[in-house]
Design goal:
This protein is mainly alpha-helical. The chain has 9 helices and 4 strands. The chain has one domain. The chain starts with a helix and ends with a helix.
Length: 263
């Protein structure tokens, strides 16, 4: 699946799971967790960027170009050890990414800023990075510096509308990463066997597009990455994400206050 499609899929998946707004009197999200509108919106921002994290194994991916030579070096290093759609495209990697988010969340270093008050630095940095990844991939902004400026502004706004990231932040990282795996699972290349690094390969003569000789698995409903079917699916997901995000935004007085304050 293409980078932009991964990003919007992360947004839509989070809104479907965490959102609870109603459109025309019908709920269009499961509302699995007890989150207010500000937390739902904040989680959507994080899930959008987190849906790109597994592609840190690809030197040409947007996430590898997001911070110049630093992220390119990380991507080249990961790629040399894992290859593309390898270790970072596994359930184990999802657990690692989520664990790192939980660790960052525990960083007890707060800054007191004018108007905004106390901001948890670890959470703000993570939110800012995820926002920068997402907005750059979705081509909402371009260049090397501007996405990070947008990310920092978004992180500060989120510190106002969702000041307690203890649960929603790592949950959003997990949702974004899992959504990435599902997206690649639906293409012909597939992803590593679910129990990786313990890989079960098909018996001789039973390999197929679903259970491949390498042990990778796929449900290639979308065909090759970038197919018309993928574009159609992600057009629908984009519409859903836009509707649910806007509806949640106008349901959150704190979010509107943060926007008006920043402007």
């Amino acid at each position: 699946m293409m980078g932009g499609h991964h990003a919007i899929s992360g947004t839509a998946a989070w809104m479907a799971l965490a959102g609870s707004v109603q459109v025309l009197g019908h709920p269009i999200g499961l509302g699995l967790w007890d989150l207010d509108s500000g937390q739902v919106i904040s989680g959507a921002v994080v899930a959008t960027g987190a849906a790109l994290l597994p592609d840190v194994d690809h030197p040409s991916a947007t996430i590898s170009r997001s911070a110049g030579g630093f992220t390119k070096a990380i991507a080249r290093t990961v790629s040399s050890f894992a290859g593309h759609r390898g270790a970072t495209h596994t359930l184990l990697a999802v657990a690692v990414f989520t664990g790192l988010a939980m660790l960052v969340n525990t960083v007890d270093w707060a800054l007191r800023l004018p108007v905004l008050g106390e901001v948890q630095t670890g959470a703000a940095l993570l939110v800012g990075a995820m926002c920068a990844f997402g907005t750059r991939t979705l081509k909402m902004v371009d260049g090397l510096l501007l996405p990070w400026i947008v990310g920092i502004v978004a992180a500060l706004m989120i510190a106002v509308i969702a000041p307690d990231p203890a649960f929603w932040l790592p949950a959003a990282v997990a949702v974004g990463c899992v959504t990435h795996l599902v997206g690649d699972l639906l293409t012909t290349d597939g992803i590593p066997f679910p129990t990786w690094p313990l890989v079960a390969k098909p018996p001789k003569g039973l390999a197929s597009d679903v259970w491949q000789r390498s042990g990778d698995v796929a449900l290639p409903i979308l065909g090759d990455a970038g197919s018309k079917r993928e574009w159609l699916l992600c057009t629908v997901l984009t519409a859903y994400a836009a509707i649910t995000m806007l509806t949640s935004l106008f349901a959150s007085p704190n979010a509107l206050l943060a926007i008006s304050t920043s402007s």
